[in-house]
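To start, one record:
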Amino acid sequence: MTISIVIPTWNEAANIEQQLQHLSQLESPSLLKEILLIDGGSTDETVAIAKNMGATVHISPKKGRACQMNYGAKLAKGDILYFVHADVQPPKSCLENILTSIQDQKCIGCFAYNFKSKSRLLKMNAFFTQFDWMTNGGGDQTLFILKERFEELGGFDEQLPIMEDFEFVWRAKKRKYTMHLVKKRALVSARKYEQNSYLKVQLVNAFTFLAFRWGVSPQKLANWYRKQLFK
């Protein structure tokens, strides 16, 4: 079985070179079918940088993370899809970890993570990502799934401008697909916390999560979220 890494991007010039360099150093490279960078119409140098590094870049017909990831899934030739954000570096053993999980009959899973920060508060946040909570499945944890199961579930909901990753995982769980949490840790950018206060990010994230569960309009929620936090 082979793995296709799908990276949705939009104005990620500050991160994409380091990300692609990191991915080029993954262990067990024979398991990697391809790395697909799916851009949503960046106005910075994201696409140029990626192409100069030899990456396979596609421009998504529709902008939006859910749309871009679905488009990447359609193009992917691997048996397993692995969705990774441009500012999240998966563990170097991720390919072997994913294959082992799939071989153990776990068709969907994600990774625990640490932040690129020495902050004790963020270390506390990261500590809890090794446990199976209702909040598991966000994009920072990176998501892998058998391509046939992804297609069976209908992919990400393209009507959602926010929370599309959580909604997909919840939908998979309703289908009785158990989410497998790999304890190996990805490394997540702390830029959101560095550009905003720790408390503000925590409160905004908590409200967004609960409001979505309560049925607040995803579009209104996305607009509100973007106004609250610098990224």
Notes: Residues 198-213 form the longest helix (16 residues). DSSP finds ten helices and eight strands in the chain. The beta strands are 3-9, 32-39, 56-59, 80-83, 88-89, 108-115, 143-146, 179-188.
